[in-house]
């Protein structure tokens, strides 16, 4: 029997300590599973950004040099482990974060979704939760 990977439901703003904790958990989990010999390559970590965590996907979010840039760190992690970074489209749009398609559809002036992140509906989260999953919220 294969264990489903956990689902990280990230709801904390990137400036909140839970935002950094979610990233540290994801890094540790992915590092640990990539070191296991019998890891099924189709098993990966599921992540979903919701609520204030949508700010993580804003490519215009500035971070001072002494603070970790969570947007860049998630992008690096996603690239390293082929991890998808879905963001709830309605919570992103309500926080001023949009991709090109939604900017055109809603007549917004520009887009600011960071590379590697994607805007998706809540059905994506529901599908991730359909299977026997371990949900961890940050």
* First and last CA, distance: 28 Å
CATH class: Alpha Beta
Number of helices: 5
In total, the number of domains comes to: 1
Provide a descriptive summary of the structure in words.
- GO terms for molecular function: sulfur carrier activity; sulfurtransferase activity.
- One of its GO terms (biological process) is tRNA wobble position uridine thiolation.
- Mean pLDDT is 90; it is low at 38-42.
- Helix 1 packs parallel to helix 2 (70-81).
- Strand 1 (7-10), helix 1 and strand 2 form a beta-alpha-beta unit.
- 38% of the residues lie in helices and 14% in strands.
- It has five helices and five strands, in the order E-H-E-H-E-H-H-E-H-E.
- Strands 2-1-5 form a three-stranded parallel sheet, with helices on both faces.
- The two termini are 28 Å apart.
- The chain has helices at 17-35, 70-81, 89-94, 100-105, 122-130, and strands at 7-10, 46-49, 85-88, 117-120, 135-137.
- With 138 residues, the chain is an alpha/beta fold.
- The protein has a single domain, classed as DsrEFH-like (Hypothetical Protein Ychn, Chain: A, 3-Layer(aba) Sandwich), CATH 3.40.1260.
Write the layout of secondary structure elements.
Elements: E1 7-10, H1 17-35, E2 46-49, H2 70-81, E3 85-88, H3 89-94, H4 100-105, E4 117-120, H5 122-130, E5 135-137
Parallel strand pairs: 1-2, 1-5, 3-4
Helix pairs in contact: 1-2
């Amino acid at each position: 029997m294969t264990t489903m990977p956990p689902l990280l439901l990230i709801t904390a703003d990137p400036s909140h300590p839970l935002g950094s904790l979610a990233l540290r958990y994801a890094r540790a989990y992915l590092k640990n599973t990539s070191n296991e010999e019998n890891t099924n390559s189709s098993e990966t970590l599921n992540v979903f950004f919701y609520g204030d965590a949508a700010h993580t996907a804003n490519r215009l979010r500035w971070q001072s040099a002494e603070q970790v840039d969570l947007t860049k760190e998630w992008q690096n992690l996603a690239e390293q482990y082929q991890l998808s970074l879905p963001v709830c489209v309605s919570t992103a749009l309500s926080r001023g974060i949009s991709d090109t398609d939604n900017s055109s559809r809603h007549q917004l002036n520009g887009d600011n979704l960071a590379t590697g992140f994607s805007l998706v509906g809540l059905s994506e989260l529901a599908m991730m939760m359909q299977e026997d999953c371990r949900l961890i919220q940050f």
